[in-house]
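Dear Dr. H.,

I hope your travels went smoothly. While you were away I took the liberty of generating a structure for the chain from your last submission, since the lab meeting agenda had it listed for discussion. I wanted you to have the full record in hand beforehand rather than looking at slides cold. The sequence, exactly as received, is reproduced here:
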Amino acid sequence: MPMHDYLSSSALRAAFGQSQRPLGQWPTPLESIEHPGLGRVLVKRDDLAGFGGDGRSGVKARKLEGLLEHMQAKGLNVLRMPLGNITNLGPALVAEAGKRGIAVHLDLVDDPPLRAESRRAVHSGYADIARLYGPSYVTAALRLGGRLVRDRLARTRSICVPPSPAHPSAIIGMARGYLEMVRHAKAQFGTLPSAVYLASASGTSVAGLALGEALGRAAGDPPVRIVAVQVVPEPLRLWLPVLFTWTLRYLRPARIPFPKCEVVAWPGNTTYGRFSAAHEAICARVEDSFGLTIDPVYGAKSWDVMERMTIDHGGRPPLFWHCGFTPTWRALAEELRL
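The corresponding predicted structure, in token form, is as follows:
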């Protein structure tokens, strides 16, 4: 069944149709490079979306589109969310939410731990709507839960979401990006990638890719392996099924196959926000060889797994999802280097 026929049901069309208020410059380019070991490699350039710090937060734009649309549809006007220290999201999130009449309250978690002056620099520009706390996301979640209860008692129309943001509407926003990639891969290269590699902290982005891949399989496309490169110590293998189940329930009555995702958790990659000299060397090599600017916090780790993971690509190219870039990493390198 062609993809456009599968997506013609009202439930799926409403969920995966084009955003009415896009945050990024869509579609982002799908490029091809020649890798000395892998041959042709496709690169999805979400780093060129023009959103966030230095205009480089592509996947964040896709996820926030979905979440903010959901909030407006439900009449929710307060967003509460934790935010860590490796971010270029805060100012853009606050500005875009404000345009839609949504107030943002951020719980700033000291992860990875930074000196006080470094934290102030990272989070400058939104101190009036943020609170600085310690390094525990569990404690942050408990605080958010308490505020959600108080909001309900006060009849405040709020939503509390885990970092990233982790919510079905954000996952759907990312799935739109996968479907965008599918259209371009078929039109430009006549084939889909064999595997897609993406660094993952909260799991929201790869859950969206996996959801899009499930839609593709249901429409008759060949399977594509979604490879989540874990960059946090928490076990994504346990969290991703929760995200999948939550999203499929959110999408009822649409009938979608259960998404599939592979998690690669190499020890050198799973201390969140930290990186090694080897990761920095990958960044330099990728820029020199292919003109792609990636960071050692996310991009270098997924690039490394793509190069070293043994997968039979069956004549189809792998795809590196360039999710964006963390422009502050060089200024913080002394504190973040392993």
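Two observations you may find useful: The mean pLDDT is 90. The chain is about 40% helix and 15% strand.

With kind regards,
E. W.
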